[in-house]
Amino acid sequence: MGSLLKWDPVREFEEFSRRLAPWFGRQGREIMKSDGEGTMAVFDWSPSVDVTEEDKEYVVSAELPEVRKEDAKVTVENGVLTISGERRKEREEKEGVRYHRVERCYGAFLRSFTLPEDADPSKITATMKDGVLKVRIEKRPGTPPKAIPIGQA
């Protein structure tokens, strides 16, 4: 007679996520669960970013929870805006405390964005509040949209 396995919906979802991860450019690594029953996928951390355009500027908003201002860096080089930094793991080991599951990812991150032609790389400001980094990139004045004529094929 065959043995019965207990169905674990969380394990099923983790397996599904692990199989889809390469399609979305995420590299995972498997770690053993603390209960000794199987493994789970943990992904390298990359902050979520929104890029918006307003009349006079572009705004890049990056979610950086638990990242100190000193641990984040914004640079511009050759028309590329780069946001980099590190979310440090500051877990205090306490006697009698056991971690059953740790899903938050820590470590270095890097996000890069090509600036549009009308962006002025000399007029960029960055602020951080409540775990959100806002990078404002002013547009060059008087840069009209470039019209592309359509020719005969």
Structural class: mainly beta
Question: How many separate domains make up the residues?
Answer: 2
Largest sheet: 4 strands, antiparallel
The Rg value, from CA coordinates, equals 22 Å
Outline the low-pLDDT stretches: 30-34
Please identify the oligomeric state.
single chain
| N- and C-termini, Cα separation | 71 Å
Looking at the structure, the CATH topology of the largest domain is Immunoglobulin-like
Query: Given the structure, what is the number of helices?
Result: 1
Supply the CATH architecture of the largest domain: Sandwich
- Tell me the strand percentage band: 35-45%
Question: What share of the residues lie within helices?
Answer: under 10%
Give the averaged pLDDT, no decimals. 80
Order of helices and strands: HEEEEEEEEE
Rough outline: flat
> What is the CATH level 1 assignment of the largest domain?
Mainly Beta
Number of strands: 9
Strand order of the largest sheet: 3-4-9-8
